[in-house]
Amino acid sequence: MEGVEVERPLKLHFIPYLAPGHMIPLGDIASLFALRGQQVTIITTPSNAKFFTKSPSSTDPFFLRLHTVEFPSLQVGLPNGIESMSSTTDRATSSKIFAGAMLLHGPILDFMEKDSPDCIIGDSVYPWVHDLAHKLQIPFLSFSGFSLFTVSLMESLRTYNSVNSDTDFNLDSGSYVVPNIPHCITMCSKPPKLFTGYMEMVLEWMIKSNGLIINNFAELDGEECIEHYEKTTGLKSWHLGPASLIRRTNQEKAERGSKNVVSVHECLSWLNSKNDNSVLYVCYGSICYFSDKQLYEIACGIEASGHKFIWVVPEKIGKEDESDDEKEKWLPKGFEERNIGKNGLIIRGWAPQIMILSHAAVGAFMTHCGWNSIVEAVMGATEWYLNGIEEKEKVVSRDSIEKAVKRLMDGGDEGEEIRGRARDFRDKARLAVQEGGSSHKNLLTLIDDLKRLRDHKPLD
């Protein structure tokens, strides 16, 4: 209407790290902003574009675009097309992918100098996002792939280590109570120096930002945790999740991420034939790889539990034609004949996880406790490691697995109590992302705050 000023949308550039557990949730968060009419650009490399090409159908492509920069394959000694942490199972290649991701600073800066945004939302793994924002004189928000509780816990350890630098906190063994945190949290062992050194760097990069984007909802992290973190660091956190709930239909859920190796129809048909809460879903993430010995123990444990299952085994992608001798290194003899079809499914590669988890037949989730899996399920590890490719010293026994599954799925009071708590958080998660919910309010407030920063107006 003539004479009425139309509010200018924000121009936002998202820079996800090159791993599915980072790209997928940050892509969904980018879609949240696009759905609110903001102009969003996701910056990635050519081989990783597939993680973002299937946005929710309700997202207007006018507001969400993809820009690719070449991955420096030659510089880091990798063949063309190997650009994601999900492309490898060995540490040397993953180190090269990490090195290549760090070299994206230059080409991304070149792009942004020609197409400057109002704000950058960058993965906390990248140390150079602060330099980009500083050079362009714009704010930037750091995306954390963890819950704020985890970030706050790590920050407490970092603060403790810096204050008590004369004592080597990391050399002690055994369990300990985390210092300087509101709740009494006991860890089973202290993190190794390699882990704490890396995490301290990431936390320092976070602190330089204008705030954290958290793929969680405030009710799960808890107001006490949020207040503690913001008070001790002076950094604002924005809970905008669970971002996966932006996917409403089975098709949208199935298209999230990479290409599935099992058809949606096959998976749904199998689940539809099962009773409610009768299926165990086993998946340890996209870049968590186990030895054949550990896979064998998992197979024995889930079979001994007597419950139906869907087991995602990315270690065996493309190995459907294994010989019997090769197969028997990780599967008990006759396992497939006894189980596959009526009692179970094995998926060798990418699976439509959100669709599976949201099905009524799924009653339990066995996972690696990665944050995306937890928040997607909203339903303990005993060994520290930086990534899922490292060789694990400990093997979880079939007896432990069998007992854990039966504890949750055999119909006892304890299992029902656990499932009841999961349902409670599921309901709270759905309310959080609906209009008037905590995550929805946070999104609208953040958009308003960023617009005021852009227009040089004081924040409330």
TrEMBL record:
Gene Ontology MF term list: UDP-glucosyltransferase activity
Membrane-spanning segments: none
Sorted UniProt keywords: Glycosyltransferase, Transferase
Coiled-coil ranges per UniProt: none
Database matches in SUPFAM superfamilies: UDP-Glycosyltransferase/glycogen phosphorylase
Mitochondrion listed as a keyword: no
Gene3D superfamilies the UniProt entry points to: Glycogen Phosphorylase B
UniProt-listed Pfam families: UDPGT
Family of the protein in this entry: Belongs to the UDP-glycosyltransferase family.
Name of the protein in its database record: Glycosyltransferase
Organism: Trifolium subterraneum
Taxonomy of the source species: Eukaryota, Viridiplantae, Streptophyta, Embryophyta, Tracheophyta
